[in-house]
Design a protein that fits this description.
Four Helix Bundle (Hemerythrin (Met), subunit A), mainly alpha, 84% helix
């Protein structure tokens, strides 16, 4: 498995969770569980991805700009999660922010898979892609809470 295949597994999970979350209503057990699961998935993924894809790419001049952009999108998602944590789940504004988060997640993942991965694939060797996948998966597992959805 290479780093891009490993990342896509988490991407698919993020898409499913964010889509399910915006289908919930009111302050419900389902909404709470989906939000906790999405929050954890985004956190575990971004920590591992930052360390084992973005940082190695920053050492290459070609990878610097694309990496900066991706990191800024991770920051944007973190801010939206923080905003959701501070808002009452039964508030209509909570769902509006959750929808915004879902849109940012989908945009980021599409951009990563259709642009970033291709550019990064030209920078990294096959051996590096496999080694980074192993490191990413180990780090991801360290932060991923298996009891969440």
């Amino acid at each position: 498995m290479n780093i891009f295949e490993a990342l896509r597994e988490s991407h698919d999970h993020q898409r499913r969770l964010s889509e399910q979350l915006v289908q919930t209503s009111g302050h419900s057990e389902e909404r709470e569980q989906l939000f906790k699961a999405l929050k954890n998935e985004l956190w575990a993924h971004s920590v591992a991805e930052d360390r084992y894809l973005y940082i190695p790419l920053m050492f290459n001049d070609t990878g610097l700009d694309i990496t900066r952009h991706a990191l800024s999108e991770h920051h944007e998602m973190d801010e939206l999660v923080e905003q959701l944590e501070k808002t009452d789940m039964s508030s209509p504004s909570w769902l509006a922010v959750a929808k915004q988060l879902s849109e940012v997640v989908h945009h980021h993942l599409k951009e990563e898979e259709h642009k970033f991965f291709q550019q990064a694939g030209k920078i990294l060797t096959d051996h590096e892609k496999e080694k980074l996948a192993q490191q990413y998966l180990k780090e991801y597992a360290k932060y991923k809470k298996p009891e969440l959805v």
